[in-house]
Amino acid sequence: MSYGKSPWVAAFLNFVFWGAGYVYIRHRMFLGVGLLFIFILNFLIIMAIPNMILLRNSELFFIWLSFIWFVLSLLFAVDVYKETEELNRI
Q: pLDDT (tens digit, 9 = 90+) per residue, 51-82?
């Protein structure tokens, strides 16, 4: 019996919104909801910080933050892709 969830959709969702891919495949729901909460909280914190505080130390902070954000998003996407493929094989 095929699980019927697309690994690419799950990976895309997890890349864009951390945890959404896990919620989509309905596997590791606790992790998915937790990551979604962290993602939303991080976004709200970044939006709430005044620009003067962030711009005080140069663009290096933004480059480093963007790099970390991208790498974590990519790792979550790869993980949920592999997880969905395994569930589809069962």
A: 656 555 667 777 777 888 899 999 999 999 99
Q: Which domain holds residue 70?
A: 7-89
DSSP 11-59: HHHHHHSTTHHHHHHTSSHHHHHHHHHHHHHHHHHHHHS-HHHHHTT-T
- Please give the model's pTM, rounded to 2 decimal places: 0.78
How many domains are contained in the chain?
1
Residues 44, 50, 72, 78: is their CA dihedral positive or negative? positive
CB-CB contact of 13 with 68 (8 Å):
no
Side-chain half-sphere CA neighbours of 29 within 13 A: 1
In the numeric block, which tokens belong to residue 41?
């909280």
Unique residue bearing structure tokens 């005044």: 50
